[in-house]
Amino acid sequence: MEEINALITTQYSWLHRQFEKKIGELSAICEMLDLVAIDFETGQQQLLAKILEVIHRHTGVDALIYQHHQGGEKSAPFRIFFGAPGIKDLNSTETEQLNRMIDEATAGAILRPVPFAGRALTFLPLTTAEQSFGQLIVLHHDQTFFSADLFRFLNLLTKELASLLLLLDKQRQLLEETRKRERLNRFFSPEIGREILAAGHHLPKGRKVTATILFADIRGFSRLTEQHEAYQVVEMLNSFYATMTKIIFAHQGTLDKFTGDGILALFGTPVSRSDDPQRAIRAAVAMQQQWQQQRTMMTGTNQQQLEQASFAIGIHTGEVVAGFLGNEELLTYTVVGDPVNTCQRIVSLAEAAQIIISQQTLQAAGFTPEHHPFERYHPSRPLKGMDKSITLFRLDWQEK
Hints:
By secondary structure, the protein is an alpha+beta fold. The protein has helices at 2-38, 44-59, 92-104, 148-185, 190-199, 221-227, 230-250, 276-297, 300-308, 338-349, 359-365; strands spanning 63-70, 73-74, 78-81, 111-116, 119-127, 132-140, 206-218, 254-258, 262-267, 311-326, 331-336, 355-358, 374-377, 392-395.
């Protein structure tokens, strides 16, 4: 009976130790997961340092050195030396020797603990099925420290760390893509934005393209600012911008910029289609019709503002240089070239509620004045600051 009791006690003690060991392992993994969940917006190096501190606390090692691999190249080692009380840090000679060992280590190879400068050293790969992130180098002052159980535990933790690094990498990519999409949605319709994202780095930074430019310019804007409070003018402008931007995007155009009292839109860049001039003309008609409808539906002060906020549209087609200006934080897509200046001058000749189109745009759209609601437009003054003459047509959009 005593033998049975002793056997049961021994077995119970063994099970209890195994249970505590598993609890410790799960506790370490849970802490690592909690750090990622709570501090995921922290810089990756700071978050990594916290995770390595968790590994240190649960294993008691002296030093953890993270060697990152990216695209076949190794980054500078990211090293944390914890050190047990009374244990000296590596001297310069030992550090140089360790760096040589790190450089020579085969990526992904698991090395059993080896002697190093009176210490024990082991390399552990940080690898998932999808990606390799490098390796974790572990040091301890006692050469007999790395038992089979501890080595297995370290492998478990490094596999979890590799999974967390993969999660952080995917999260970084997702955040970067989200930021890009948010920036793109400021200027492009969702459809064009998706095409730009799909093109990625293959999208040219600047190139010559044939584009149709549309300028919409509010008439009598200075008088508006004089007769109304600033907040009323801002309210009217926001209504104007919101309405026109939706129409531009609905016709697969690109918003180049707000010009204070107007809008510059592009058709044919960054994505070119055969019907770019036609869509620009249809967008212009929709813009005038929608604004007229809003004026009819609104009453009171807002209606008075809208009544006075008629606008003119000029459309021109030609070869421009198109591309992105700025950086990752502030990115602008724009065009430069003579056609932009020409279109700006065309709209300056138009009267309120008119749509004036250049002959180049009509030809590009395949329209002729004889078969469509266009009539030759004779402005009261020439194109300002330009020597060349240009044939213009007025679109009678109210008949469409």
